[in-house]
Amino acid sequence: MKRIVAIYPGSFDPPTNGHLDLIERGANIFDELIVAILRNPEKHPLFSLAERKLMLESMTADFPNVRVETFDGLTVDYALTVKATAILRGIRAISDYEYELQMALMNRKMHPELETVFMMPAERYSYLSSRLVREVAQLGGSIQGLVPPMVEQRLKEKLDPAIKLRNARSPRTGKNASKYEKRTGKRK
Rounded to 5 degrees, what are φ and ψ at 184? Predict the structure, then answer.
């Protein structure tokens, strides 16, 4: 019996509950699912590749048939290197479908043996995108329920100037801490 390996490629900046929904459902369909984080030199991500990989590894730790990797270049070439026979893609709206259909047809032209599997997200995540989450978080809005709690905390730490300042002054960094703070971990 043939093992079916699929990749779920994306930038995941940041990973959302919509991504997690597709990962969980994909893990139930495929023998192995590789969450493949694209390293795109043309984009300026909020989170580094290493940060996104750590978050996704934490989010998928309960799925024994899911692993997280990074790649650059063409998705189809990466899929062949990991012996994947399917690409999992999420479609939220008609506009997604038009773009994803073009990509799937181009991928089929380059590598006919590679199938693209489209999944619709759960209804409660049908509007959700990493871009929207970043925008809401950057403007101080609540992202609770849109991303896992760990991602929400990482976004707050990355975007909140007060948290950045507190972390910069913490005894752990030591950079701006007084000798008393470094020794005791308390502020005067």
Answer: -105, -20
In angstroms, the CA 178 to CA 169 distance is 9
Quote the CA–CA distance of 65 and 8 in Å, as a whole number.
Answer: 13
One of 52, 89, 130, 134 is an active-site residue; which one? 130
pTM for this prediction: 0.82
Note the CATH number of domain 5-127.
3.40.50.620
Q: Model confidence over 13-25: pLDDT tens digits?
A: 999 999 999 999 9
Q: Are strands 32-38 and 66-71 parallel, antiparallel or unpaired?
A: parallel
Catalytic residue among 25, 92, 111, 169: 92
The distance from CA 29 to its chain's CA centroid, rounded to whole angstroms, is 20
Spatial distance between the Cα atoms of 130 and 16, rounded to a whole number of angstroms: 7
d(CA 148, CA 124): 14
